[in-house]
Design a protein that fits this description.
This protein has ten helices and eleven strands. With about 280 residues, the chain is of the alpha/beta class. The chain has one domain: Spore Coat Polysaccharide Biosynthesis Protein SpsA, Chain A. Strands 1, 2, 3, 4, 5, 6, 7, 8, 9, 10 and 11 form an eleven-stranded mixed β-sheet that branches. The longest helix is centred in the C-terminal third of the chain and has 17 residues.
Length: about 280
């Protein structure tokens, strides 16, 4: 059930008053491993949010660089930044799960330690969700290089997302996903190295009544050479495993889903943009 349904009737359609009464806590899930070059900028993009009722749960996977020291320097200045370190090297999925476990917010949002949010990301997304009575949302995002330069490519969204559509393609970029969570029945990712976000969101969508894409660019996704998502063949293999093994679909259907996934990614998911259309100027 949507967070404020029980109170909505008393506002008699006055959306402005209704919006003012929304001060939900947003739990931001940020796994980290050796991101000393980027984590400071990631944290600053959260600190710059126009919506201020959040907690940033940084879960470090036993980093060997200075990224945790950098994160700690921010946490000392702002108690909303909460840092924990895994007891042993555990991988992205378990690291993300450890952060989810300690979340206290009505909403979960995801931001990896090398990506960036626009200042109005949370405010606009929560506004969108309330206005559309939506319990799962995601938005467009722009690709940037390791150095932070625009690659002149933006990921697009579909207006309505369902579990079946999610089987065919992982539509949401993890860095733009925000959804309402049940604190008494939290949902966790499968312990797999790749596509664990796909597996997680498939689980979440089974409980969502209305999942929607927001046709506005709200984040910057950093393309890195060493990223685990860069090995395309291993990603496709894991995609099949998610659909076949975890979602209990036939192997034939899983291979069909891989085909649709590749087709969408090649022809529909991304669009080229002009430099004047880049959202990077908003951050300058």
């Amino acid at each position: 059930m949507f967070l404020y349904d029980k109170n909505f009737s008393k506002y008699k359609g006055n959306y402005t008053i209704y919006k003012m009464n929304c001060n939900a806590l947003i739990s931001i899930i940020t796994p980290n491993y050796n991101c000393e070059e980027y984590i400071g900028r990631t944290i600053e993009s959260v600190l710059s949010q126009t919506y201020q009722n959040w907690e940033m749960l940084i879960q470090d996977d036993c980093s060997t660089d200075k990224s945790i020291e950098i994160a700690m320097s921010y946490a000392k200045k702002d108690s909303r930044i909460k840092i924990k370190i895994n007891t042993q090297r555990s991988g992205a999925a378990i690291t993300r799960n450890n952060a989810i476990e300690r979340s206290k917010g009505e909403y979960l949002a995801y931001l990896d330690s090398d990506d960036i949010w626009l200042p109005t990301k949370i405010e606009k997304q929560l506004d969108f969700m309330i206005k559309n009575n939506c319990d799962f949302s995601f938005a467009c995002y722009e690709h940037i290089s390791e150095e932070g330069k625009s690659l002149l490519k933006q990921a697009q969204v579909i207006k309505h997302l369902t579990y079946n559509k999610m089987l065919m393609h992982c539509w949401p970029g993890c860095l733009t996903v925000m959804y309402k969570q049940n604190l008494n029945h939290k949902i966790y990712a499968e312990d797999i190295k790749k596509n664990n976000d796909h597996a997680l969101f498939l689980r979440v969508l089974k409980y969502c009544k209305n999942a929607m894409g927001m046709d506005e660019c709200l984040a910057l996704y950093r393309i890195r050479k060493g990223s685990i998502s860069r090995n395309k063949w291993k990603v496709l293999k894991t995609f099949i495993m998610v659909v076949h093994q975890f979602e209990q679909k036939s192997l034939l259907f899983a291979h069909w889903c891989v085909f649709t996934h590749m087709f969408v990614k090649a022809f529909f998911k991304y669009k080229k943009i002009q430099s004047k259309e880049s959202i990077l100027h908003i951050l300058k």
